[in-house]
Amino acid sequence: MFVVLKIINPEKGFLKRRKQKKALDNAVLRSCPTERGLPFYILEVLDGKRGINWKLAADKCGRYSSRIIAPRSLPLPDHARLKRFIPISMNSVLVFNTALKIIEKSKLVPDEICITLTDRNAVHPRDVCKILPYASTVRVVTNHPERYAAACSEAFEEHGASLIIRNAYEPISKPDIVICCDGAVTASMKNAAIFTSKRKNGGKLVFSGSGVCLAPKHAEIISPETDPVDFAGALTELCGSREYKNAVFSQIEATCRKCEDSPPEKCLECCCLGRINT
Question: 195 - beta bridge partners?
Fold first, then answer.
């Protein structure tokens, strides 16, 4: 459970502003349901002449004051006990889902492809077997191999395949697609096609994603300045809602300029077929 701060600008006209201030000062948390998860709350706060009354906002948020979703550009004062919630695993989920979607759309021959999942915090043991149909070799780089034990059994018993578990990335001779869910892009990945949430170089081709498309009912709640990934992450991690479990990035940038007018799956094909040299 968490609180979305909805910043309200003052009305024009003295009487309207006075009435508005009184109404917002008396406003309480408004509960919003989620699909098969805990609810979240909305609190409207007035950004008046003297700024926001942070103490009043913190008092209203109560035990949820450490779980605030607000625009990143809006600084939250320490003295008011309010703390911004930053999702831990949502970017990882979006990287995985986006990579899987693009790989599915590509026309690559699985026998010729390796896919490496870098997941040092072991966020994706339940998802890794979704990769198996698209590569002859599937590797997982993780600091918690024990959490992948069940996935290894599933891969062998249900798909007749083996997951290769490693504690560090190693280059491979065949085309390698790295789904970098932990953001740990390394120099040794220089010949790979990499999916990540951070804009960086490091591979032969790097896809960096950002943003997520919210459902209309959620988009109208948060302000345009609020990062939709923050909201989707809070809904997933704090409320246990599954509404964004299959979400993908809404924007994708690729380091290749040769294919900049082509869809990502075509650019990925070019890279794995050796048509990108840098």
Answer: 179, 207
* Residue with the two structure tokens 């609180």: 3
51 Ramachandran zone, left/alpha/beta (phi>0; psi -120 to 50): left
Q: Say how far apart CA 222 and CA 216 lie, in whole Å.
A: 10
1 and 41 Cβ atoms separated by less than 8 Å: yes
Q: What is the largest CA-CA distance in the chain?
A: 73
Write the CA distances from 25 to 46, 56, 113, 114, 253, integer angstroms.
Answer: 8, 8, 60, 58, 44
**Residue-by-residue pLDDT tens, the chain, 278 positions:** 999 999 999 989 889 989 999 999 999 999 999 998 999 999 999 998 889 999 999 999 999 999 999 999 999 987 778 999 999 999 999 999 999 999 999 999 999 999 999 999 999 999 999 999 999 999 999 999 999 999 999 999 999 999 999 999 999 999 999 999 999 999 999 999 999 998 777 789 999 999 999 999 999 999 888 999 999 999 999 999 999 999 999 999 998 877 667 899 999 999 998 866 54
CA distances, 56 to each of 6, 29, 72, 78, 244 (Å): 14, 12, 20, 14, 32
